[in-house]
Write a structure and sequence with these properties.
Elements: H1 9-22, E1 28-31, E2 37-41, E3 45-50, E4 55-59, E5 62-74, E6 77-80, E7 85-91, E8 94-100, E9 104-111, E10 118-127, E11 131-143, E12 152-157, E13 162-167, E14 173-177, E15 182-185, E16 188-189, E17 194-195, E18 197-205, E19 208-219, H2 223-254, E20 257-259, H3 263-277, E21 280-283, E22 287-290, E23 293-294, E24 308-309, H4 310-322, H5 326-338, E25 349-350, H6 359-362, H7 372-387, H8 390-395, H9 397-409, E26 437-438, H10 439-458, H11 462-483, E27 484-485, E28 490-491, E29 494-495, E30 501-502, H12 510-514, H13 520-530, E31 536-537, E32 540-541, H14 563-575, H15 579-590, E33 619-620, H16 621-635, E34 639-641, E35 646-649, E36 659-667, E37 670-678, E38 682-690, E39 696-699, E40 702-703, E41 708-714, E42 717-718, E43 722-725, E44 730-737, E45 743-750, E46 754-756, E47 772-778, E48 784-792, E49 796-802, E50 807-811, E51 814-815, E52 821-824, E53 833-842
Parallel strand pairs: 35-39
Antiparallel strand pairs: 1-7, 2-3, 3-4, 4-5, 5-6, 5-11, 7-8, 8-9, 9-10, 10-19, 11-18, 12-13, 13-14, 14-19, 15-18, 16-17, 20-36, 21-22, 23-33, 24-25, 26-29, 27-28, 29-30, 31-32, 34-35, 36-37, 37-38, 38-45, 39-44, 40-44, 41-42, 41-45, 43-44, 46-49, 47-48, 48-53, 49-52, 50-53, 51-52
Amino acid sequence: MSASRLLFFGAVLAQSTAAQQAGPNLELSRPVRAWEFLPVVGQRAGLFGNETGRFEAWVYPLKIFRAFHLTFHIGGRALPAESLARTLTIHPESATLLYAGDSFRVKETLLVPVREPGAVILLEVETVEPLEVEAGFVGDFALEWPAGLGATFENWDTQLRAVAFGEETRKFAALVGSPTAEDAHLAYETNYSSADETSFRLGVTQKGRETKVLVIAASVTGREEAQKTYEHLSSSYEQLKRESAEYYSNYLADTVNLELPDKTLQQAYDWSRISQIQGLVANPYLGTGLVAGYRTSGVSQRPGFAWFFGRDSLWTSLALNAAGDYSTTRTALEFISKYQREDGKIPHEIAQSASLVSWFKDFPYPYVSADATPLFIIAMNDYVTQSGDAAFAREKWDNIWRAYQFLRSTYDERGFAQNAGIGHGWVEGGPLLPVKAEFYQSGLGVEALRALSGLAGFVGKDDVKKELADEFKRQQDALDVAFWSPKTNSYAFALDRNNQLVEEPSVLSTVPMWFGLANEAHAEAMITRLADADHETDWGMRIISSHASRYDGSGYHYGAVWPLFTGWASVGEYRYHRELPAYSNLRANALLAFDDSLGHFTEVLSGDYYQEFSTSSPHQIWSAAMVISPLLRGLFGLQADAQSHQITLSPHVPADWTSFAVRNVHMGAVRVGFQYRKTSDTITLETTRNGTGDCWVEFSPALSLRAKVVSVEMNGRSLPFRIQPNEEDQHLVLRFAVSGGPNSLVIRLKNDFGFAFANELPSLGSTSRSLRVISNSWNSVRNQLTVEVSGLAGMEYELGVWNPGQISSVEGAVLTKQGNIRIVMPVEMGADYLHHTIVIHFGKS
């Protein structure tokens, strides 16, 4: 732990106050990476391409063109823009590419206004000699898969100076042009020759500076509406850009704000909220819901996963709720429930052109998953519990109950939700199949019982509530027994068709842990196994061990690393007090924001090398959610319960964090803010609130098992407390009402101790190098701590230490003058990752 990571709370507080006044810094910039995905999206349109400036345009559900590119004409030469792309700068509402030549530069800003069916491209030209920009593209006027338009055409509209796209029914239309466009050349095909590309020039800039504007607009109701949008974008793009920037700024201000001493993590959190809300799509035929992600379609009509997914939006909703965005969760639940099957099954995939084909009848995809159904019940309960919107539960009770009836129809003889004959759980294909029931799927089925019991209480069905609560308790115990393998001391991936354990330890077991379903001792053993280097890479969690016979690092469902898995693991590890592997997984996800598609979080990476799959959707919505949930639900243990008028804050703070703030926590009509500060012998929590209504806080910080609480005071008065220990740490549990004025909680303690390690991503294409903290255990008198680590043979690592003055000696490592623990891994021929044991001895208390 470097000295720069130890920030005193006074300096942090001063910086954070200034940051609050100015708002978060959302600009990201880097040199261009030609291969990286570049998305700019709104709710009705999107531009998808790469960082050289080649992209395709969509106005949902229409694809307008592909292979858009610029050419600079100067001094008798035609220079392709992609060869001159130098830097990329992004904001939530736009992306800017800087092209530079010997005597000119051009800034190309891609803007997709949040609620407009179109896009704008601004070209800021600066040149010392005459320069003309040419825009070229391949017209690809088509409906998103699987629908089709039939015969299409394009022509040049001299009045609008735009290429007009249409089809024979005159229902679908698009315009691409510029107020300065001229010298148009349209794609054509004859018996003797053809040209695929359409192009036009934007007029010569003689010398100096000039801004050119290119506009894209479309409609599913005809040319007239497309033209209105085209003219609106042409005349109002500056206002629309400001409004879009304000939309994202207001969104961040209205959801849970964080101030973290780890500024990289804080910026990743801000971008994860942006990236997540960019999954909200308004389709003119289907309504508004959450899509799964974005990628270029190329010559096809499938832009990544830019259609609506059930389980993706339901997992994402848990992050939306944690951040206080109840409105988007309600929108997503409304959308999904609208397409629920008559027998209660929840949809898996809904293409954006679903209403234009016989999607729900003739295609195999709509209801192919089994896990969306229990997730719907779980997500509904989480939304209602946190938002207090019991009216929505009453309104949707029929949908909820039908989902439960379908779920019950999938039970096996022991009452577990199964996959065989029902639909896939997490795994959709590959050598891990076939199975009867995944632990993942059966765990969701059991959690759905608890969720439905809660929902029954909200709608006044107390008899149903009790019956389901009793069933949940029975099935929770039975679930652990059914999937735990004493032979391997781990949870099995699944049960096979003969009810035998498929004894393949998998990160999927952390989903039942997320919900607290696992036996504590079993969870301990499983997390220890998952924390080792064969499961955990520097960039996240493999689905199974790299030592497994079924493993393949390029296997989509049998070896790859998904940020989704990594987020599951982090929340589950925090739930069972394993903060060090949890924090490593949280950072692995968060740092992706700055290393792949800038500001976004990819779908899937190789299990062997730090490299996203060539088929990955680089802007995946639930991957963004898996930064938010591990931070808020995991690290901060943040949970609102509107019915109980209570907010729980149960943080596992990294040992080197001396301060943090969590603001704008929503609980009914109340908004609550927390400011935390720590010294070697005190913890201070300042709590503020606004809004009306009762509000209670349960504050339960994790402390070292060695720590002793001396006193607790609230506003100068003694406050009752209790200590809740576990195998890893102990929690000081406090409950207090939050009044309108400042509420100051002061905890005095001694002998608190901890160590910290902040992992980093490796270079692209590299293998793992970072340290793994696999386990730690105290002796009974708390004067000896044994730490098991795994590291690369011959590598040197340092653990930062909180209160190092307590240490009397260290075995297996060195205590540095700075108070850190330096570990030198042994050198062993042919070895990769090795295990190493450190024993820390403490002096008298």
